[in-house]
Amino acid sequence: MADEVTQKKLKEAFRLFEREGCIEVDDLGIIMRHLNLNPTEKQISALKTEMGPNVIDYNVFEAVMSKIVLTSTYDGATLTLDTEDQLLRAFEILDPERNGLIPSEKLVQLLKSQGEPMTEEEINEFLQFAQSKDSAIIRYEEYVNLLCSHLKK
């Protein structure tokens, strides 16, 4: 059983997407990210299968999601978001000159080919948020600060 704080978070997240007492199974990924979890598409797909074909009522949602939120894991994998320091270190790997800049083209190529490839739409959204407005570069320290400030709200 989830503690009071977890129950409150789950109820708030559920209510944001609720229609007639249920949420759409397709909203699970968005809801999980709202709860500061970072599932892969494969994990979201497995959850959709586990929770039902179309819509989910609150009881099913709470039963499954409370375990995930309390442990920050699903199917043996951690779902927590990276810390600001971890994100900076990850970007620094792509910046051998350590000047705080990564060409957008280089990052786009990696986002399409490494790990779980991002879609064009996801990449465009990322670039709109992360890319410098005056050139095709990503000032990753600014991006990480901006990203983490949004997550703290």
Offer a concise description of the structure:
Residues 82-117 form the EF-hand domain. Helices cover 59% and strands 10% of the residues. With 153 residues, the chain is mostly helical.
How would you sum up this structure, described in words?
The chain has a two-stranded antiparallel sheet. It is elongated, with a radius of gyration of 18 Å. The protein has 2 domains: 4-78, EF-hand (Recoverin, domain 1); 84-152, EF-hand (Recoverin, domain 1). The chain has helices at 4-17, 28-34, 41-51, 58-71, 84-93, 104-113, 120-130, 140-152, and strands at 22-24, 55-57, 73-74, 77-78, 101-103, 137-139. Strand 3 and strand 4 form a beta hairpin. Helix 1 packs across helix 4 and helix 5 packs antiparallel against helix 8. The mean pLDDT is 86. The protein is 59% helix and 10% strand. By secondary structure, the chain is mainly alpha-helical.
